[in-house]
Amino acid sequence: MINPKALQGALVIGTVLQVAMVVAGHFVPFVALHVFMFGGMGISAVAGLIYGRAAAGYGAAALGAAIAGGGCALIGIALSVLMGDTQAVILGLGTASSAVTGAIGGVLGRLILGRAAAAA
Questions:
Q1: Residue 85 phi, psi dihedral angles, 5° rounding
Q2: Do the Cβ atoms of 95 and 79 come closer than 8 Å?
Q3: Domain residues of the chain, as ranges?
């Protein structure tokens, strides 16, 4: 089951980071050329990790984290397209790849939580 409060928190944090990266890339060409792809997926993984720590199980962690990772990337990429820094075709591909990295982050977040609980 998806945790709405955790999803909202992960989406907000991920979106703020994505928007910050997009705005930086708009004014600093190096960021647009060398950071957008891996930086965006990394931010989505972090959003997924945040969600995964609050999820009830691995399946829920992966699903909610995919939504968080893909959602924040969708917003960031759409902003970048509107600003003229990214081609529209990247909207689908970037969102999909960020949803996958978000899901991976969610599973890792759940795994970390499980290990921390076992160690306590």
A1: -95, -15
A2: no
A3: 4-112
